[in-house]
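Run log, item B.
One chain of 208 residues. Sequence copied directly from the ordering sheet:
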Amino acid sequence: MPTKIRLAARVPDPLSRAGIAAYLRVRPDIELLPDDRLAEAGVVLLVADALTARVVEELRELSARTSARFVLVADRLGDADPLALVELGVVGVTWRADATGERLARLVISAAQGVVDLPREVQSRLVADVARLQRTVLAPKGLTASGLEDRELDVLRFLSEGLDTAEIATKMRYSERTVKGILYNVTNRLCLRNRVHAVAHAIRAGVL
């Protein structure tokens, strides 16, 4: 039988935890762990009112105790640095209003597979923040080496604009499998965690 995804949940109150447990109870492929088994988790679900600097600090503390990927549920974006979220292992974000049982399960499964699923608001803030970092910090120091090929840059450019792999394949006249292969090669060769991290790398290098 397939191995269950072990999920730890960090929630602000017992009612929220009970709701998450009820949502996931019907999912035989996901096991909700008790709080004292955090180290065994492959995915950690964190619930907060907003994505703030306090959430970043909590993620930093958790990342020192687990190698799990993180999924966040929040009411709104807040003032958190999206780049810090990505660097700490966040691969999925959903707003509380959209957090149905099916949505949560899909995010957890995607996170376990290393697939990034971020709202467009978070992606836009991430791209803007990293571009600002490139202009104000990296470019003045001449840090522009990217290690990226032309077609890899094209894929990442489209990705930074919010296109999915199918849309990128249409734009570039490639198969979707080819686009996914390009993204896999980029993240694997440059030791990047995921697609969002690859976009951040390209922007930091001054090539996007």
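Observations after the first pass:
- The beta strands are 5-10, 30-32, 43-50, 69-76, 90-95.
- The first strand starts at residue 5 and ends at 10.
Flagged for discussion on Thursday.
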